[in-house]
Write a structure and sequence with these properties.
The chain has 117 residues and is mainly α. The protein has four helices and two strands, in the order E-E-H-H-H-H. Helices cover 55% and strands 10% of the residues.
């Protein structure tokens, strides 16, 4: 469970949400601790390639966070729609394509910075 503060022009509302608010299972935080950089990289690729079960703690943690971002940005209307949208992005390859584009842009920026020096 975590605390949320919703701030509007006229009010501040505090409330608690949990994975169940998003229709997800609850897992101990220890179930999503990282490993070595190589292990974490492989786990991320497995996740974004749709190879993790929808009951996997890492999948749930990432999907919950993505769903929350989609909700607060106004892309979806509620938590469960956010979960569906996040999982659809994973399933259809959009999440993996975004990572690949981030890598490409990052590598290009590093190369350009090195050339400027």
């Amino acid at each position: 469970m975590f605390q949320v503060w919703e701030v509007t022009r006229s009010s501040i509302r505090q409330f608690t949400v949990s994975p169940s608010t998003f229709g997800l299972s609850t897992h101990p935080l220890s179930s999503v601790t990282g490993g070595t950089p190589a292990e974490n990289s492989q786990l991320l690729i497995s996740l974004l390639s749709g190879q993790l079960s929808t009951e996997d703690p890492v999948e749930n943690f990432v999907v919950l966070n993505a769903a929350a971002l989609l909700l607060v940005s106004g892309v979806v209307k509620d938590e469960r729609e956010g979960v569906s949208a996040a999982r659809k992005s994973i399933r259809e390859g959009g999440a993996l394509r975004s990572l690949e584009e981030f890598r490409r842009v990052s590598q290009k920026a590093v190369l350009e910075m090195e050339l400027e020096q």
